[in-house]
Write a structure and sequence with these properties.
The protein is mostly beta strands and 79 residues long. The protein is built from no helices and 5 strands. The mean pLDDT is 90.
Length: 79
Amino acid sequence: MIYQGRVDGIAAAGPVDVDFAFFEAETGGASLLFEPQTVDLWDGVFSAQIGAETPGGLPASLFDEPELWLEVTVWDGAT
C-alpha cells in the first residue's frame, strides 16, 4: 500500500523515522499491525510502501476488519 504524506515543522529534507500502525477502532481499539520505517523527506513530503518491512507484506485479513484506522507518527529525532 503506497502512502504519501506531508510534514510541517520538521527539516525540509533527509531521512525521518515514521511509524505506521493499524487499529480496529478510532480510539481504544486493538493494534492490528505496527510497522516502523525510515523514509526520505523532500520539501516536507514523503512516500512509503506500507507493508514493505513486514514479512509477507500486509496480511489480506487486515482488510476484513469492519473498521480500519491508520495512525502515522513522524519522528523528528529530537529527544
